[in-house]
Amino acid sequence: MRTSRRECPSPHSTLNKVARVLWGVCWWTLFRPSPRICFRWRALLLRLFGAKVTSKSRVDPTVRIWAPWNLTIGSDSSIGHHVDVYNVAPILIGDRCTVSQYSYLCSASHDIADPTMRLTAAPIRLDASAWICARAFVGPGVHVATGSVVGACGVAVKDVSAWTVVAGNPARFIREREIQA
């Protein structure tokens, strides 16, 4: 049995689509092939496309960024290799944050109650000294508070309280995080 389904129009403007094509060309030709140590070069390229990135930010050349104009990276923060930054909505990464290899910061999803499954988006915020461990997933609208850790392969779909460690799928409280002197 066939069901009729109306067409789902793109929520993205023509300007947004053109900008993403230009960014894709820049990523393939200038960003991705740059030597790993050229952090300032990649920060410059990101700034040219509207990102707010300090010269002390460290972004690996294999990081995939969907829309640089929706990205803010604080001082002394690092985004590791093969991280996927799907920033349909803004993603703010505070000072001294680490986003480890193969992690996924996903600021968009789809409304499963809508027959056209329209795109929904909500910003992600990582406060100062947060750590997103290897292969972790941070979903739309999640706030990872100061000093928090999302453990390896953790799936954070709800806010993470300050100075806590969460892990699992879905991520749940493991313990308090304490910094030793």
Describe what you observe in this structure.
Belongs to the transferase hexapeptide repeat family. Keywords: Transferase. GO terms for molecular function: O-acyltransferase activity. The chain is α/β, with parallel strands linked by helices and 181 residues long. It has one domain: Hexapeptide repeat proteins (UDP N-Acetylglucosamine Acyltransferase, domain 1), CATH 2.160.10.10. Helix content is 15%, strand content 28%. The chain is built from two helices and 19 strands. It has helices spanning 14-31, 39-48, and strands at 52-53, 58-59, 64-65, 71-73, 78-79, 84-86, 91-93, 98-99, 104-106, 108-110, 119-121, 124-126, 131-132, 137-138, 143-144, 149-150, 155-156, 164-167, 172-176. Strands 2-5-8-13-16-18-19 form a seven-stranded mixed sheet. Strands 1-4-7-12-15 form a five-stranded parallel sheet, with helices on one face. Strand 10 and strand 11 form a beta hairpin. The longest helix has 18 residues, at 14-31. The model has no long low-confidence stretch (mean pLDDT 94).
In terms of topology, how is this protein built?
Blueprint: H1 14-31, H2 39-48, E1 52-53, E2 58-59, E3 64-65, E4 71-73, E5 78-79, E6 84-86, E7 91-93, E8 98-99, E9 104-106, E10 108-110, E11 119-121, E12 124-126, E13 131-132, E14 137-138, E15 143-144, E16 149-150, E17 155-156, E18 164-167, E19 172-176
Parallel strand pairs: 1-4, 2-5, 3-6, 4-7, 5-8, 6-9, 7-12, 8-13, 9-14, 12-15, 13-16, 14-17, 16-18
Antiparallel strand pairs: 10-11, 18-19
